[in-house]
Amino acid sequence: MLDRPRQEPGLRHGSARDPRPGADGLGRVTESGSPASDTGIMTRIHTTAGAAVAVIAGQRVELLDRARVYACGITPYDVTHLGHAATFVWIDALSRVLRFAGVQPEVCRNVTDVDDVLDAAARRAGAAYDEFAAIQQFQFDRDMAALGVRSPEHEPRAHRYVEQVIRLASGLLDAGVAYHRHGSVYFRGQGVASRVGLDRAEALRLSGEFGGRPNDPAKDDPVDVAVWQATEPGHPAWESPWGPGRPGWHAECAAMAMSVFGPAVDVHAGGADLKFPHHAYHAAMAEAFTGVRPYARAWFHSGVVTIGGAKMAKSAGNLVLLDDLLAKHPAGAVRLMILDRPWAQNWDYRPALLEVAATRLENLYQAAARNVPNDPAAVDAMRRLLADDLNVPAALDLAIEAGGAAARTLARVLGLS
After folding, report:
1. Most-buried pick from 217, 266, 355, 388 (CB within 10 A)?
2. What is d(CA 66, CA 211) in angstroms, rounded to the nearest whole number?
């Protein structure tokens, strides 16, 4: 279950042993420091007069006391797989590092429960779309809890934000960046692909892959996308000034994010495979509606998980389900397998990686149990490593070597305690 079929179902909940020696010995340490993230890079961070300052891709991002993090959430139409889990574990880790840095993360993780893929799955199950989505959402929440992913502060559901999408469509029409035709409202997409460095041919390919209907004859341009889709059989519909219909995918996220956070966010996070079209159109609609640019001060696109070089997908038959992993391995080992690498890097899953992660986790627990003098310098060095592009491997090496408070702190910050 995740945002969109390009990364389909996977992993789910299960039980696992807790191998930690004296798990209750993982202590508490005062939190302070600072965070950041970017198109893929958390760089230099320090504090000045109490404000956290991040230098991200050459730009400073200053945070007073909170960070608005929009986590591109799930389309609850199937079970959770490792690709889904990796995205949300990394977003959770980002949130924890921000908190470690002395900034309160405020996470908004949406639920896309108005969606063509979900509608099709609900029909196959013989259920109403909203009832089907609620059941799948429950399963996803259970999966995330099993992996230690904290609940977000905000969890808007698309079917409750239809009125906001209608207002967004009206505003885009008023701004001259959208047009109405045959009961649908289309956002003009020319120039959106160039925002993320894509040429037109690749943009059209991805648009078709993600259900963007580039061949829709009602469009002025194949790269235009529906803000409001005219009613069609087999889908839920709501009344609008243009007739009955439903929200478009990108418009749902834009409306939910702006409703919760206003015209901009500090960090927009999600899987790298959704960078285009979804994230690019989301940002373009928000900027066109509000006039505030940039929509996101930083982008956090986590790497895609593959199997034998092929992206994990239901259609490919190569899913690694979370339930299956957690039935045989501790949740901490699964979580560390995801985190013990550069967060923006695509990676290929192999069962041997879990054994490596289990060994690293055991080494961290043994280091945490060592009776060594507290070393504030080691904790500060670890904080700087985490602030520098979320360098978990280096922070883990340092924590294992230093032991004691440094190891206990890292276990807590990474959600491994």
Report:
1. 266
2. 35
d(CA 127, CA 122): 5
User: Which CATH architecture describes the domain 23-159+303-413?
Assistant: 3-Layer(aba) Sandwich (3.40)
In 3D, which of 386, 388, 389, 373 has the Cα closest to residue 415? 386
Burial of 215 per CB tally in 10 Å (0-12, 13-18, 19+): exposed
CA pair distance 264, 11, nearest whole angstrom: 32
**Residues β-bridged to residue 70:** 108, 268
Residue type, 368: A
Peptide bond between residue 294 and the one before it cis (omega within 30 degrees of 0):
yes
Backbone angles phi, psi at 292, to 5 degrees: -90, 125
Average pLDDT score, the chain: 87
pLDDT tens digits, one per residue of 207-235: 999 999 999 999 999 999 999 999 999 99
Q: Which two tokens stand for residue 69?
A: 């993090």
User: Measured between alpha carbons, how far is 338 from 314 in angstroms, rounded to an integer?
Assistant: 20
User: Starting from the edge strand earliest in sequence, which strands make up the sheet with 184-187, in order?
Assistant: 178-181, 184-187, 225-230, 245-247
**Residue 310, CB-side half-sphere exposure with 13 Å CA sphere:** 11
Count the alpha carbons within 13 Å of 369 in the hemisphere toward its beta carbon: 12
Tokens of 39: 């198109």
- Residue range 252-278: average pLDDT? 96
Examine the pLDDT at 268 and tell me if it is beyond 90.
yes
Residues written for the chain: 417
Structure tokens of 167? 């207002």
The pLDDT tens digits for 107-137 are 999 999 999 999 999 999 999 999 999 999 9
For residues 370 and 372, what is the distance between their CA atoms, to the nearest angstrom?
A: 6
* Confidence (pLDDT) at 213: 96
Strand order in the sheet with 296-302: 104-111, 66-74, 265-271, 296-302
pLDDT at 349: 97
- Which residue from 248, 249, 259, 258 is spatially nearest to 286, judged by alpha carbons? 258
Cβ-in-10-Å burial (0-12, 13-18, 19+) of 21 comes to exposed
Please name the residue that has the structure tokens 């069609």: 232
Distance in angstroms (rounded) separating the CA atoms of residues 86 and 9 = 12
Catalogue the long-range contacts made by 393-396 (C-beta closer than 8 Å, 24 or more residues apart): 393/340, 393/341, 393/342, 396/340, 396/360, 396/364
Q: Tens of pLDDT along 365-388? A: 999 999 999 999 999 999 888 888
291: Cα separation from own chain's centroid? 25
